[in-house]
Amino acid sequence: MQLQVNATLILIDQQKGIHEPRLGPRNNPQAEERIAELLEHWRARSWPVIHVQHLSRSPESVFWPQQLGVEFQQRFMPLAGEPVIQKQVPDAFCATGLAADLQRGGVGQLIIVGVATHNSVEATARTAGNLGYETWVVEDACYTFDKQDYFGQWHCAQQVHAMALGNLQGEYATVVTTRDVLMAGRAG
């Protein structure tokens, strides 16, 4: 495994609202630490970082605009020069300038972290893979929540996380760990 020149770290929905208790139990309690570790690694090398911010169309959402939940968490606040892609649906490519920005930057590889694994992370990684990007999803730097399936059966967040990663692995993306990425970054 090796990081390409211009490998871009994409942080998905690291906003205050994601900590809203009504979202329910989650997995990967150390995910934010892993995200911060990767972000620090990227920034120390002046590698490209893109922040994705969800602006919901639903007033019931934790990401409804013009309330605190939509704001970035302090530790993941974009720095000057780090682009912010604002989206209204889970897929960060849909109706945004993300693909054009990546093409302009000569980017061929995306490292995706954030929340929720089964929602915005999976949707964005699927499109990235379909568009031909070498896409890595960092499993210990993503998390999700308990979720009910179509038939009414509840699944714990770790099961939902595992299924989403299983959906991506090998077809749309390569699922990796933070350690894998950091090792690849030191080799490159």
Automatic annotation (TrEMBL):
Record keywords, A-Z: Hydrolase
TM stretches of this protein: none
CDD domains reported for this sequence: nicotinamidase_related
Molecular function terms from GO: hydrolase activity
UniProt keyword annotation of Hydrolase present: yes
Pfam families per the UniProt record, alphabetical: Isochorismatase
Highest taxon above the source species: Bacteria
Isochorismatase-like domain residues: 8-178
Protein name, entry field: Cysteine hydrolase
